[in-house]
Amino acid sequence: MDVRPLTALDAPAMRYINEQGLPGTGRVSVEEMADLLTLCELALGVYREERLLGFVLCLLPQTRYGSLNYAWFNQRYDAFLYVDRIAVASDQRNNQIGSNLYHLVIAHANSLNLPVTAEVSSNPPNPGSMRFHARHQFIKTGEIDHGDSSVTMMIRPMDAGGFDSIHRD
């Protein structure tokens, strides 16, 4: 398996994998996926023989991204690396692809001296994602009720301190 940066040419395959993760990943078009890539600080895909098996998309604060969940973190934190989505093809799950991607995300965040933020669907519940984020040392920092759905807001503090200095009270 190879890990490499994603490009707009990957957007159709990304959307296909993203659709397999609904409702936890949130529906996007190929065009929206390609646009989202232009906002990313980190956009990595795992490939085997040119087939995309999984991917992760991460943003820094204060981009034009219109996600309400992303806005929640922007309102509360000055600095973070936001995991907008991590998705693995359904036939590739439980092969450590997501964990390997998260190790790269965490290493990148540590190099920038930033915590990692993400959200997990709580309605409908996503217990697998909650366990996955707990294994990667994320803790609950809030919750958003969107009416027909809700999400648990999560943060993984930096490995080398400094977390308190970036939180807005």
Walk me through this protein's architecture.
The chain has a single domain, classed as Gcn5-related N-acetyltransferase (GNAT) (Aminopeptidase). It is 31% helix and 30% strand. Residues 160-169 have low confidence and may be disordered. 32% of the residues are buried. With 169 residues, it is an alpha+beta fold. A hairpin with a 4-residue loop joins strand 6 (139-145) and strand 7.
The low-pLDDT segments are 160-169
How many runs of DSSP E, i.e. beta strands? 7
CATH homolog superfamily: Gcn5-related N-acetyltransferase (GNAT)
Query: Into which percentage range does the β-strand content fall?
Result: 25-35%
Helix share bin: 25-40%
Short description:
The protein has 169 residues and is α+β, with helices and mostly antiparallel strands. The protein has helices at 11-20, 30-39, 68-76, 97-111, 127-135, and strands at 2-5, 42-48, 51-59, 81-88, 116-123, 139-145, 150-156.
Topology:
Blueprint: E1 2-5, H1 11-20, H2 30-39, E2 42-48, E3 51-59, H3 68-76, E4 81-88, H4 97-111, E5 116-123, H5 127-135, E6 139-145, E7 150-156
Parallel strand pairs: 4-5
Antiparallel strand pairs: 1-2, 2-3, 3-4, 5-7, 6-7
